[in-house]
Amino acid sequence: MPQSALTNLFRVKGGHNEHKVSFSELFFDLVFVYAITQTAHLLINHFTPYGAFQSLLILMAVWWAWVFTTWVTNWLDPETVPVRLMLFALMLLAMVASIAIPKAFGEHGLLFACAYITLQLGRTIFMCLSSRKAAPQLHNDFLRMTLWFALAAIFWIIGAVQEGETRTLWWALALTVEYLSASLSFYVPGMGRSDSRKWNISGAHMAERCGLLIIIALGESLLVTGNTFSHTDWSVATTTAFISAFIATVAMWWIYFSLSAERASHRITNSETSGHMGRLVYTYVHFLIIASIVIVAAADEFILAHATGHIGTATLVAAIGGPALYLVANILFKTLIFNSHPLSHYVGLSLLAALIPLSSFISPVILAILTTSVLVLVATWETVVVIRNESNSDDAERAN
After folding, report:
1. DSSP string spanning 45-108?
2. Rounded distance, CA 182 to CA 124, Å?
3. pLDDT for residue 180 is more than 60
4. Rounded Cα gap, residues 232 and 222, in angstroms
5. Could you tell me the end-to-end alpha-carbon distance of the chain, in angstroms, rounded to an integer?
6. Which of 43, 194, 256, 348 is the most buried (most CB within 10 A)?
7. Which of 124, 95, 115 is nearest to 156 (CA)?
């Protein structure tokens, strides 16, 4: 595409599209939710320490591809034809990578690696060309990113032509390079480093993009759970487990969205360092939220498959670890955004830890009920505290 066709692609500051999440972006997200679902099934089918590590690598790659595209569409306007076509091309590559996920560490390793590399480099080069004249500082930043992605691509390809543990190690190295590059502000000798504190982003757009992906991921988790339940024997235990899974998902939604998401959007929008906050909170912390949803989905599958009897190690780790990671991620989110330490979340973590020794004496469905109860308690507690604080604040304003 000629350079002239890549001008004036940026969102207009102060325009009606500055914070808008476009339909093409939502369309783009659907492919990545499919990738997250594929990763969840990979984890379910290989729930061992080694299998969990491989699933983590795939999820890290999926998230990195999605969140970097979100950064690009925070600056570029998806309502313009070139940007929209770029998104559709990335969708195709993401679909190919998603299809390859179940056998990414087997016969489809090269397919996954090539699709992922092309997506990351293609999008970043597109941004370089788009910003060359319109935003020279961003052009230099994305040029640094291109060099880092190109370096990581070498390790992706080397790993793809290897087998077994060797491939896993090379891909772990590739992802280490990619994630480390961001923490190093994409430092390149002779070119310096990027300064995310100077990135002028739309905080509202970034917050909404991440929030929408979490909603879709939670919804997809419910659909997968419902599909699993429909293929099981509808006993009292499995029905109870299904209802528990539904309530747990609602509680997870409540903990993140009911009181925090919109206020966080307002906070980052009015922050003088929105770029730095966006990188720290929405690029890194939100990965933990998505990872926890994947683990909770795995726990739901395990419990629906064996609602009664002894609690296996995989079920225990997923059923306790998923909600625990979700609470930890929300603690980090709320601490970094609001400088608050929600007591309800810490109590929830303590209660989840207390369920570990108890698990030897209860069935999987009872464990599901108890973990769900913890999430409901956290959501209820935080709601009451926030409403009471807001009421006290209103009373104080009226008194003045």
Report:
1. HT-SHHHHHHHHHHHHHHHHHHHHHHHHHHHB-TTSHHHHHHHHHHHHHHHHHHHHGGGTTTTT
2. 14
3. yes
4. 15
5. 62
6. 348
7. 115
Question: Rounded CA gap, 252 and 374, in Å?
Answer: 11
Q: Residues 249-260: pLDDT tens digits?
A: 999 999 998 777
The answer to whether the CB of 292 falls within 8 A of the CB of 299 is no
225: tokens are 């759970």
pTM for this entry: 0.89
Contacts for 265 with CB less than 8 Å, ≥ 6 apart: 203, 204, 207, 208, 211
Which residue from 205, 180, 354, 376 is spatially nearest to 284, judged by alpha carbons? Answer: 180
Phi first, then psi, for residue 10 (nearest 5°) are -80, 150
In DSSP notation, 128-194 reads HHHHHHH-HHHHHHHHHHHHHHHHHHHHHHHHHTS-HHHHHHHHHHHHHHHHHHHHTTT-BTTTB--
- Position 38: which residue type? Q
Q: What are phi and psi of 192, to 5 degrees?
A: 80, -155
Helix (H, G, I), strand (E, B) or coil at 273: coil
| Tens of pLDDT, residues 344-398 | 999 999 999 999 999 989 999 999 999 999 999 999 998 888 777 666 555 554 5
CA R_g for the chain = 22
Return all residues near 398 (Cβ < 8 A) that are at least 6 apart.
Answer: none
